[in-house]
Design brief:
This protein has 401 residues and is an alpha+beta fold. It has three domains: 65 residues; 230 residues, Hypothetical protein af1432; 69 residues, no CATH class. The protein is built from 15 helices and nine strands. The strands form two sheets. A five-stranded antiparallel sheet has the order 8-7-6-5-9, with no helix packed on it. A hairpin with a 3-residue loop joins strand 5 and strand 6. Helix 6 packs antiparallel against helix 7 and helix 6 packs across helix 12. The chain is globular.
Length: 401
């Protein structure tokens, strides 16, 4: 049986089923392993991991600990509550109308950010004049309809991950700010910080930055220096704002003080640093890399809620979920009727009932002519029962957007 326990209750010979921490925050080669000594427990605690899942069939039990089913039921109830209560401001433009412009904005953003990061690797100074128009174009697209450009962000290529991740973090931060009704001038500074938050990685050796596998402990320590390197680069950049610097400096800080480089805790981390930490983990976990298969957005949102006990500000996680929805556009979902559908637009009064495009009959295992249904309409009796992993179903949601 899989159970969740505090790290303080771990004992040698227990078997960890899941380290229960974003893989980008620890150097363990595996998420599952046997605790062989007290030193193993100390090492886990040293990385700020507070709770883990154990497999009681492979090691000692802790009878009073909640099971994984208990935890998942609580998280599902939390998500359902958020879906019913969180409201979004209806966008002025439809997803379909904005998608063409959003693709152009995304392509241009990837090109410019790639060039800026490459220039930084060559020792050139960052020229904000190159990046600021990109930020402005992303903001314009987000203001017209945030779902159009956000739905494009999971499309990444392994050899271009660093700059595509930077564009994704900047875009998600802008959407997050918009949901919080932050002033546009401030959004510009936060978005710029998102686009440049990983610029310090250009000073990390290529064999570590592009390693096709998990980093060793020593490599992980070198990688962590990218935050300090980035701050050094940005502090020398004329016209950089303190808010932009905060995003770059604090995107790996954790709410419980276990993050890096400064180990800041709670409100010692700026609002924008706290937001960047949420967004950075979300995009990393939903992205596929050589050694990490991207996790579906809805599942990652559940994990963000779970980790808000320690790693994140819970209120901000709620607001981030509001900004992208319980089932973000592009999510493959299973309907009560037995059909699989792609979420194509959010319903802003109820995030549990988006507009979907039915594409596959899961009972007959046959594709169907695409048909749209607004699950929020009174006459629609269908509903979402779960999200699905596209690779397992053989359905590519991007084909239907």
């Amino acid at each position: 049986m899989i159970k969740k326990i505090d790290v303080a209750d771990l004992k040698p010979k227990m078997f960890i089923h899941d380290i229960n921490c974003p893989w980008i925050n620890h150097p363990f080669l595996r998420n599952s392993f046997l605790i062989e000594s007290a030193q193993d427990i100390e090492k886990i605690a040293a990385y700020g991991i507070c709770q883990v899942y154990i497999d009681t069939t492979l090691g000692p039990d802790m009878p009073e600990a909640p099971t994984v089913h208990d935890i998942n039921r609580q998280l599902d109830e939390h998500m359902q509550h958020l879906g019913r209560t969180l409201k979004r401001v209806p966008p002025p433009v439809s997803v379909e109308k904005e998608r063409v412009k959003a693709k152009q904005v995304c392509r241009e953003a990837n090109r410019i950010v790639h060039n800026v990061l490459q220039d930084c690797r060559l020792g050139k100074q960052v020229e904000l004049e190159q990046v600021e128009p990109v930020v402005s174009n992303i903001i314009d697209s987000i203001f017209r309809n945030p779902d159009a450009i956000v739905s494009l962000l999971r499309i990444k290529q392994a050899d271009k991950y660093t700059f595509q991740h930077s564009v994704a973090v900047g875009t998600l931060l802008i959407s997050f700010c918009r949901a919080l009704d932050i002033d546009r001038k401030l959004i510009e500074q936060v978005g710029l910080g998102g686009l440049l938050h990983d610029i310090g990685k250009m000073q990390v050796p290529n064999n570590i930055l592009n390693k096709p596998g998990k980093l060793t402990e020593s490599e992980f320590e070198i990688m962590k220096n990218h935050v300090r390197y980035g701050c050094q680069v940005l502090e020398k950049t004329p016209g950089i704002s303190p808010i932009t610097l905060n995003v770059a400096a604090e995107h790996h800080e954790c709410y419980n003080g276990s993050g890096y480089p400064l180990g800041l805790k709670g409100d010692e981390i700026s609002l924008y640093g706290q937001m960047a930490a949420v967004v950075d983990v979300y995009d990393a976990l939903t992205s596929t890399r050589v050694y990490h298969t991207g996790i579906e957005p809805t599942e990652v949102l559940r994990k963000l809620l779970e980790w808000s006990d320690h790693h994140f500000n819970l209120t901000l996680v709620h607001q981030f979920i509001r900004s992208i929805g319980i089932y973000p556009v592009g999510t493959l979902v299973r309907l009560e009727s037995g059909y699989l559908a792609v979420v194509v637009e959010q319903h802003h009064e109820n995030l549990l009932h988006p507009r979907v495009r039915v594409v596959f009959n899961a009972r007959t295992r046959c594709y169907t002519p695409p048909a749209d249904f607004d699950l929020s309409k009174p006459g629609c009796n269908d509903r979402i029962t779960s999200f699905e992993v596209p690779a397992k179903c053989g359905v590519d949601p991007q084909r239907y957007l």
